[in-house]
Specification:
The complex is a heterodimer of chains A (162) and B (556).
Chain A: E1 3-6, E2 9-12, E3 15-16, E4 27-28, E5 30-31, H1 32-40, E6 49-53, E7 69-76, H2 83-94, E8 100-105, H3 112-117, E9 122-124, H4 131-137
Parallel strand pairs in A: 3-4, 5-6, 6-7, 7-8, 8-9
Antiparallel strand pairs in A: 1-2, 1-9
Chain B: H1 6-27, H2 33-41, E1 45-47, E2 52-56, E3 62-64, H3 65-78, E4 82-85, E5 91-93, H4 101-109, E6 127-128, H5 143-153, E7 168-171, E8 185-191, E9 197-203, E10 215-222, H6 226-240, H7 251-258, H8 260-273, H9 283-292, H10 316-325, E11 326-328, E12 334-339, E13 350-352, H11 353-366, E14 370-373, E15 379-385, H12 389-399, E16 413-414, H13 429-438, H14 442-448, E17 453-456, E18 470-477, E19 480-487, E20 499-500, E21 505-506, H15 510-524, H16 532-539, H17 542-548
Helix pairs in contact in B: 1-2, 1-4, 3-11, 5-9, 6-8, 7-8, 11-12, 13-15, 15-17
Classes of the chains: A alpha/beta (162), B alpha+beta (556).
Chain lengths: 162, 556
């Protein structure tokens, strides 16, 4: 059973991606482009949908439809991929997406703190990463210099910062 | 200078703990080489030709004597008793053991230093004019803004995994001693219509294998928007910069592909759209930061000495040092002293532990306990009373740090090259030594006037060869070291890229080639005041090519 970190807890992965067999307790996560195309074709989409956002997807196109979504999975297909950090901040702050925002891919515990600060609240880390040990990485730092989307981590900031 | 409070201290200590754990996991086999690489790189740790190399950050080149002593201690305790100052005002250690690096970082943290973001695809050390705060020609001290940018950039959650490295430089002087036109972002302080401080913003400059001069993308940015605008630039770059090809991943390629106009439009659009959540720089925050960079307690002194060109001290060596290694200070009675790290026989930028310790002591005595690193790999004692100059010269001379060659041909910028770097195609240190040996006559150097040689051992251009008046680039030809020569480059405003004079030359002919370039210059120059680079601009490269590639090119 695949496990993910959700809001500081280890839980069973509830997502199912293209080609994976349906299993109890999982939901299909469809590519963002497919979701946009379905909307464009006039298909009715019930609220509570889940989509997968790739590094080159423009989150601006999702902005009018965020009310239909309660899970957005942002992909990090390679070590060092960084576009998802910007996508997350835009979704959370500029477009006020309030549902679950998951980071998935070639991610280790070393990126968790930054991911959480950008607004991710669930994490599907690289296979083999020690998830129990990873939970602690959300508290790698107790202070920060910048404002961000800090719901999940607790950082102290200077009272009168830049 | 900036002093850490509890927030800064905690951040640096927690970073040490994080890196200690990352190193432990790598050594225990929990992290593969590929997984560890981006983690160690963003903490300045390279695996080099013979050993790891650790690059320590010196924000905008400013060091206290306490910090300099710690750098000496690290050189002695963890390395081979020397350090190497770089073109980005940092220091590198070439021989630390990987497993001891966390201890080095802990030692650095104890004196408010770190190696955070000195490498890797993130925002690197913020560099600045090494004469900030003392230069007579500056609009205002740029360092408070450098520190504000440094803090904003440090462990920035959104911009820590960029397509490629990102370098920001700040200047407040029209002379531009920080080479802002060849940085990913260049920030120039500028007075607004009512005299208020704002900024001119350049983007997309850089050297490497595709050298490009930065483009002006904002002619006046209000102070309050500095970080918001940087954030907009970084977001456009992070989202749209290429990640499929490491050689096309810098912001300069994005800017060139989009065109400056379209790039600027995207940045401005992002800047407007992002206002709600972007950081705003309050006047109070700037004032608070300015307080850290208040002028030291200068004495009221007469601007009496030095009588350069006036009454002789009786020591020609001292007179030369005074003329070449010191500069005017904006406060009467004081002078800026350059500490030359370009002595014949030494690798440019190298300094021993004992020299660092002695310099720290000297700084405590005569320069308010502060030292600066310059981007051309020298050090500076910025606030020396003129009455102490003779004593400072004697001490520096005894330390081997008073070679009177600042701004002359042998004040070369030079990367570590093949001797240390695993990227290099050719040696640079031994070529620097060859040039030193050939041009060791100071009177000849003085006659040549200001001339900048910059040398890189590969096209990554750490030695800034494109913007040298004479640039030297090491290339590999069938396993042999050859050197491509460019002339006419400049880092000072207006920046310019040098032109290649022709086929590369073998190693043993580099100094002969330079001798021929200089011969043409001395023949062609207009009066004594026309610099080499100005002569090249006036007459073009052809006369130089003719002389260099004449037949019977005799080996040096």
């Amino acid at each position: 059973m695949r496990r993910i970190i959700r809001r500081r807890e280890l839980v069973a992965d509830d997502a199912r991606y293209g080609g994976e067999e349906a299993a109890a307790g999982t939901r299909r996560v469809r590519p963002a482009a497919e979701f946009i195309a379905a909307l464009g074709a006039g298909h009715a989409i019930a609220a509570g949908a889940a989509i997968l956002v790739g590094p080159t997807d423009e989150v601006e196109t999702l902005a009018p439809h965020l009310g239909l979504l309660d899970l957005i999975v942002v992909e990090f297909p390679k070590i060092g991929e960084g576009r998802g950090f910007s996508q997350a901040r835009l979704l959370r702050q500029r477009y006020r997406y309030g549902g679950e925002l998951r980071a998935r891919g070639e991610l280790k515990r070393d990126q968790l703190f930054f991911l959480a600060r950008c607004g991710f609240d669930s994490f599907d880390l690289a296979p083999g990463e020690n998830l129990e040990a990873s939970l602690g990485a959300l508290d790698a730092f107790s202070v920060a210099y910048q404002d961000a989307s800090d719901e999940l981590v607790h950082v102290q900031r200077r009272p009168n910062p830049a | 200078m900036y002093r850490y409070d509890q927030i800064d201290r905690t951040l640096v200590n927690e970073r040490v703990a994080q890196f200690r754990d990352q190193t432990r996991r790598f050594l225990a086999g929990e992290l593969s080489e590929d997984e560890f690489r981006p983690l160690r790189l963003r903490n300045g740790l390279y695996i080099q030709r013979y050993a790891p190399m650790l690059r320590v950050s010196i924000p905008y080149g400013l060091l206290s004597s306490v910090q300099l002593r710690m750098l000496a201690h690290i050189a002695r305790s963890y390395d081979r008793d020397y350090g190497h100052f770089t073109t980005r005002q940092n220091i590198q250690y070439n021989w630390p053991a990987l497993e001891r690096v966390p201890d080095i970082l802990a030692d650095l943290a104890s004196v408010e230093m770190h190696a955070i973001q000195t490498s890797g695809n993130c925002i690197r050390n913020i560099t600045a004019d090494h004469l900030a705060g003392v230069a007579p020609d500056e609009l205002a001290d740029p360092r408070p803004y450098c520190e504000i940018i440094r803090q904003w950039a440090t462990l920035h959650p959104e911009f820590s995994y960029l397509p490629r490295k990102f370098k920001i430089a700040v200047t407040a002087s029209p002379a531009d001693r920080a080479a802002v036109e060849v940085h990913d972002v260049g920030v120039r302080l500028k007075a607004g219509p009512d005299g208020e401080i704002g900024f001119e913003i350049l983007a997309g400059g850089g050297l490497g294998r595709t050298p490009i001069i930065g483009k002006l993308i904002r002619s006046f940015l209000p102070q309050a928007d500095l970080l918001a605008y940087l954030e907009a630039i970084l977001r456009v770059y992070n989202r749209h910069g290429r990640r499929d090809n490491i050689h096309k991943a810098r912001i300069k390629i994005l800017l060139r592909t989009l065109g400056a106009e379209e790039f600027t439009r995207q940045v401005e659009q992002e800047f407007e759209a992002g206002r709600e959540f972007a950081p705003q720089l309050t006047p109070q925050a700037v004032e608070r930061m300015r307080g850290y960079f208040a002028p030291p307690p200068y004495l009221k002194l007469e601007d009496a000495t030095p009588a350069i060109g006036g009454a002789s001290s009786g020591s020609p060596a001292y007179e030369s040092w005074l003329r070449y290694n010191t500069r005017r200070h904006k406060v009467p009675g004081y002078r800026v002293v350059f500490v030359s790290l370009k002595k014949h026989g030494e690798a440019p930028g190298d300094i021993s532990g004992a020299q660092m310790d002695a310099l720290a002591l000297l700084a405590d005595r005569v320069s308010f306990g502060m030292v600066r690193a310059t981007h051309d790999q020298n050090l500076v004692l910025a606030d020396v009373p003129q009455s102490a100059l003779a004593e400072v010269w004697r001490e520096l001379d005894a330390l081997g740090l008073a070679t009177a060659n600042i701004g002359t041909l042998t004040d070369m910028i030079c990367c570590p090259g093949l001797d240390f770097c695993s990227l290099a195609n050719a040696g640079s240190i031994d070529v620097a030594k060859q040039i030193h040996a050939r041009f060791d006559d100071l009177d000849y150097l003085y006659d040549l006037g200001p001339i900048e040689i910059k040398m890189s051992g590969c096209m990554n251009a750490c030695g800034h060869h494109h913007i040298g008046h004479i640039g030297i680039l090491g290339v590999d030809k069938h396993g042999k070291e050859w050197y491509q020569i460019t002339i006419g480059g400049s880092s000072a405003a207006p920046a310019a890229l040098g032109e290649v004079i022709g086929p590369s030359v073998p190693k043993e002919q580099v100094s002969e080639t330079i001798a021929r370039l200089l011969e043409v210059y001395l023949r062609e120059r207009h009066g004594d005041d026309e610099r080499f680079v100005d002569a090249v601009r006036r007459i073009g490269i052809e006369p130089f090519q003719e002389r260099v590639y004449e037949t019977n090119h005799t080996p040096a």
